[in-house]
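Exercise 7. Predict the joint structure of the components listed below.
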Amino acid sequence: AQSVTQLDSHVSVSEGTPVLLRCNYSSSYSPSLFWYVQHPNKGLQLLLKYTSAATLVKGINGFEAEFKKSETSFHLTKPSAHMSDAAEYFCVVRHPFSGNTPLVFGKGTRLSVIA
Amino acid sequence: GAVVSQHPSRVICKSGTSVKIECRSLDFQATTMFWYRQFPKQSLMLMATSNEGSKATYEQGVEKDKFLINHASLTLSTLTVTSAHPEDSSFYICSARVRTSNLNYSGANVLTFGAGSRLTVL
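Solution:
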């Protein structure tokens, strides 16, 4: 079975400083991994995904994540935070061979950006 | 890109009434849709998987008679919360699986999410 652990429930950074949102996964296979962002009262938006291609994945809005199999991690980073980045971020895993398998969500990390 | 429209975005109802939430795939066909529920400050929990033309598959602990799911066409799935109670107040989100041929994404299929429906039961 797959599981996802987001190590921080809340991260607060100053505008212009780097962002690091941590995620560890557990899976019997090499999974597909995703990061989604949810802004207040809005739906989920896909930031980026890893599907066994390049281990460093670049997403939208300057975010990227690196898949590290040895550490079973898929941390999300951004060099410089912007006020608009304040949102809830979810790390997500899915079995790679089952297209209809639903996603397994982490508990989420709320990112606050301080001016 | 693929768009999933969810309606209504907000609904307030009295205890004991039923509420229907619609989830539509606007520019693609969705053979499978998923319904999630999100409690305040918590992650999304899968409620059920909705397959077009067949009965939905519910997750353990989700009452199928309480949360009726209908997926009558390839572009529409509905969730009806029957005899709603205050504890049913939550944020409900649907998602639909988009085939990669429909998008510029490469690799695995992705899920597109609706904007969610906030249900408040008084």
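Discussion. The two ends of chain B are 37 Å apart (CA to CA).
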